[in-house]
Amino acid sequence: MIRVNPPQKPAQGFILTIIVLLMMLGLLFAVGLGIYALSLDGTVREKFEGKRWAIPAKVYSRPLELYTGAAVSKSDVLAELKLLHYRAQSSYDSPGVYSEKNNELYIYTRGFVFSDDTEKSQVLKLQFQGNVLTDLASTQQNNKGIVRLEPLVVGGIYPKQNEDRVLMQLKEAPKYLEQALLATEDKNFYHHFGVSIRGTLRAIFVNLTSGELRQGGSTLTQQLVKNFYLTDERSIKRKVNEALMALLLEWHYEKKEILETYLNEVNIGQNGNRSINGFGLAAQFYFGQPISELSLHQVALLVGLVKGPSFYNPWRNPERALERRNVVLANLLNDGHITQSQFDKAKAKPLGILKTPTAGLSIYPAFLDVVRRQLKQEYKEDDLSSSGLRIFTTLDPRVQNSAQLSFNNQVTQLKARNGNRLANLQGSVVVANPESGELLAVIGGYGNFTGFNRALDASRQVGSLLKPAVYLTALATGQYSLLSPLDDSAVQVASQSGDVWTPENYDHQDHGLVPLYDALAHSYNQATIRLGMTIGVPEVIDTLKKLGVTQDMPNYPSLLLGTVNMSPMEVLRLYQPFATNGFQTSPRSIREVVDANGKRLTRYGLEVKQVYDPAPLYLVNYAMQQTMRSGTGAAAYARLPQDLVMAGKTGTTNDMRDAWFAGYTGNYLAVVWLGNDDNKATGLSGASGALPVWIDLMSRLKPTSLQAAQPDNVQWQWVDKMSGKLSAEGCDGAMYVPYLTSSIPVDQVPCAAEKDVLNDPINAVVNGAVNKVLDIFR
């Protein structure tokens, strides 16, 4: 008998079909998920194993060099330590602190890796006598006898996304940073695989019951994925991607590497439009200290800010930030990482943040702009903003701060005294070392830096600043001396078109016959025009080009009175040969560029060339010293020491639109310009506007006397001021002035003839070797 199976019910076939379809869909989903995961895996590994961050180039000031005999006072060193955020303590038991005991200063330095050597962290003992470091002792052996403090970070060159960070390694983390972070953000970090099921379920419950996305439940790994790979979009898709990528990250990499990357990636603040990323930069941003120096309460604040840097901003919301910090401290206590005593001490401390942040901010934007412009001519923008270069500059923070203070104070006073007339007054200051050409300070304008750097971009008429070149040209011919009489009566100059130009003196007075040096010292226009027209405008132009002026200059008589537009930086270049007896080194702002591995890429050495005969320059220097003693710059000696030898020149343009002063001592060459951006008249002369800024600046620094070397073909002679004839010491009207040996007068006044000056052996000795020594003190 044949058994016949009853036919299956349609429902059973349908269920089987559904199961098969579901299995196929599940398989397809698994395959699709696998393919999607593989694509995510490529993304995860490519970035994590490649160049993780665009590291901005960091720009540093010059390091302060300490050695026995250095011309640096105790107050100078303390000012430098303040800039570097060293902390005063009764004991010097850790890097970044100092202690004063009687006339001794103890410093526990931080150390720094330079391109040529590593300056180790060490304890220094310094002793001073006045403005000199008389003794230096160290806990580290040093065969060079010089110790360099770490240079100040003055700014950076940032990538387009405006992120900034200071990379740190996990081993550099201060005590309690890892424990505080994990106790607060992810207690099970070392026990999960990138995703916390419990945290995720809790977040799902909260979000479902609230009807919106309110809680993330993310692990540190997920937070890193969100910051490193994804956006802040709040969606299911982003959360799925975050979870998958977190699992992949944990699959490929060690926990310590993930944690270290998190420490460098997490956002902990905002400085304007610049993001503060990572604990390394945050330590400098909030406390002005390296991450390794942070104390327990400081670490707790930074960890607390991870939850919401804006919400807990300690400057805007100090009470909220303090409460959040104490939550982190409580987490450490509850997890057994700190004792009750440590908790109580840390909780009792104030926030201790800086009054204003400095890290991530260009402290000296005008100087940094000079650096950027030079670097852009030699490096690609991407290399500057993302390769972690270190640029060591010539900037001296003490000179820069002094220049800024002098400039701001004087301009503020001028604005206050003159009301609306000078409401928009602007200006610039540039300071350099005359011998090396190294820029020490750059002020690009009054108020916030807008990108228009007046030190470079304000090209204005320089007025009487060009006059020294006229007198130099005349003296170089050998036909003139410092006492040659010049006619300062009214003068008219006819142009080829028939127009007549009648220049006048600043005081609208005629002064008759005046000695050449006096005409320059008092900046007499009429005498200068006559002299310039006699020697020839083309010859003056040739002198200016030798001195470093590169622009085309019109062959017009008005050029003799400065109808040439120049920037303060160009004027600085023009005046350097005057300060160095004819030697020129182009102004430079960079010493060297070093890559992220410490390899020197470029070194900007000293390039010196002689551009003019030092003998006539020596004579012009005498005349410009008289400018300061008795001429338009005489106000300087009301505040500066009488024995300080300095030289300079005021400059005032037509209708008093521009006020200039260029002056130099033995160690500083500084140019000041004041004016309006719209070129309207200011009513200020070089003496009333720019000179006070220069004087105030020099009073804050420690200028040394100008010590121009006397050329062999220059002799000092006693000469009668009125007649220009040889005289003698003690004779009425006698002056002691330098002469080119080829132009020493032959005729004598009767008083000199009686003393037989020409045959006096003592006079010959003085004009020899002894005179060169005495010249130092003139």
Report on this structure:
This protein is an alpha+beta fold. It has five domains: 63-150, Penicillin-binding protein 1b fold (2-Layer Sandwich), CATH 3.30.2060; 158-348, Penicillin binding protein transpeptidase fold (Orthogonal Bundle); 393-462 and 565-708, Beta-lactamase; 466-563, Beta-lactamase (3-Layer(aba) Sandwich), CATH 3.40.710; 714-777, no CATH class. The strands form eleven sheets. Strands 11-1-15-25-26 form a five-stranded mixed sheet. It has a five-stranded mixed sheet with strand order 3-4-5-8-9, with helices on one face. It has a five-stranded antiparallel sheet with strand order 17-16-30-29-28, with helices on both faces.
Which class of the largest domain in CATH terms? Alpha Beta
| Biggest sheet strand line-up | 11-1-15-25-26
Our count of helices gives 25
Which strand-content bin applies to the residues? Answer: 15-25%
> How would you sum up the global shape?
elongated
Structural class: alpha+beta
Q: Write the CATH homologous superfamily of the largest domain.
A: DD-peptidase/beta-lactamase superfamily
Sheet with the most strands, sense and barrel status: 5 strands, mixed
What does the secondary structure layout of this molecule look like, with pairings?
Elements lengths: L9 H40 L7 E4 L4 E2 L7 H10 L3 E2 L8 E5 L2 E5 L3 E2 L4 E2 L3 E7 L2 E7 L8 E2 L4 E5 L5 E2 L12 H9 L11 H14 L9 H9 L7 H17 L2 H11 L1 E5 L2 E4 L1 H9 L8 H10 L12 H17 L5 H9 L16 H12 L4 H6 L3 E4 L3 H22 L6 E8 L6 E5 L10 H4 L2 E2 L5 H10 L8 E3 L5 E2 L5 E2 L11 E3 H6 L3 H11 L1 H10 L18 E2 L1 H12 L3 E2 L5 E5 L5 E4 L5 E2 L3 H16 L17 E6 L5 E7 L4 E8 L9 H15 L13 E7 L13 E7 L9 H6 L5 H6 L2 H6 L4
Parallel strand pairs: 1-15, 3-4, 12-14
Antiparallel strand pairs: 1-11, 2-10, 4-5, 5-8, 6-7, 8-9, 13-14, 15-25, 16-17, 16-30, 18-23, 19-22, 20-21, 24-27, 25-26, 28-29, 29-30, 31-32
Helix pairs in contact: 1-6, 3-9, 3-10, 5-6, 5-7, 9-10, 10-11, 14-22, 16-18, 16-19, 16-21
